[in-house]
Amino acid sequence: MLGLKLPTDPRWVNIVEKNIEEILTDHAYCEQKAASTAISLIIGFPEKSELVKEMTALAREEMGHFNMVHDKIINRGWVLGRERKDEYVIELMKFFPKGGSRETHLVHKLLYAALIEARSCERFRLLSEEIDDEELSEFYRNLMVSEANHYTMFLKFARKYGKKEEVDKKWEELLEYEAQLMKDLGKKETMHG
Fold it and tell me: Cβ(131)–Cβ(108) under 8 Å?
């Protein structure tokens, strides 16, 4: 359903289980960055009223998820660690060339966001099915549904604001690029890397 070309190696869960504190910290910042992305879309494209409305709701939801992850950290007797670089996102952002029209920039941002949400959804599913920690298994099962909805929403907006055929072609190319990236990732207790 997500269209990802290379699934996460299930052994990634074994890496995560060795350092739950690290994955929760990374996850918390991912939620915060997702809220920031929504806010940046509002700031950058205020004339797109439907997008602004959806991004306002999304920013609220993502900060709610951040709060839920932060609560998991606190309840386990830990504190939120420092933000880490997200190698996955850094590498992903190199795919589309810089420049272009404002509309092209918007479509690219929406496609990046869709892919990040799709990969998050896939990772949440894997955690919900494979992690031994029952509390986190249920937590990630519930979040997985949200991420799937976010992924489809971003794709819908990309197709609305760009030419559908071009957007679909770019999406397929981005998926292929991401599959190549994933061959070198999945070896750390981070949500995407």
Answer: no
Query: Where exactly are the structural domains of the chain?
Result: 10-183
CA 128 vs CA 25, 74, 142, 144: distances in Å:
18, 21, 9, 8
Domain 10-183 fold:
Ferritin (1.20.1260)
Which value, to the nearest 10 degrees, does the dihedral of the CA atoms of residues 164, 170, 173, 178 take?
-110
Q: How far is CA 140 from CA 6, 79, 87, 94, 160, in A?
A: 20, 20, 22, 29, 30
Q: Of 71, 83, 153, give the one whose Cα is nearest residue 116.
A: 153
pLDDT profile of the chain (193 residues), mean per 10: 86 91 95 97 98 98 97 97 89 92 96 95 94 95 85 96 97 96 80 79
Q: Classify each residue of 136-175 as buried b or exposed e, where b means 16 or more C-beta atoms within 10 Å of its C-beta.
A: beebbeebbebbbebbbbbbebbbebbeeeebeebbeebb
| Structure token pair of residue 152 | 């489809």
